[in-house]
Amino acid sequence: DLGLRSQGHRAVGTWAWQPWAKLRNRFSPHIGFNRADMSIGQRGDNGLSIGTVLNTWVWGVRDTLAWEPRADLSIDVGADYRGGQGTFSLDAPVQNAFEVGGFPRIESRPFDEQGKLQIDNTLQAHNAAVFATVSWTPFLGLSVIPGLRGENFRHIALPITLPDGTTTDENTREKTAVEPRLTFRWQIGNASVVKGAWGMYHQQVVGYLSSQSGGNPNLDLERAEHRIAGLEHRLTRTLNIDLQFYDIERDQLVQSSSKLIKNDDGSQTSERFNNGGRGRTIGMEVLLKHEITRDF
Question: Cα separation of 101 and 99, whole Å?
Answer without folding.
Answer: 7
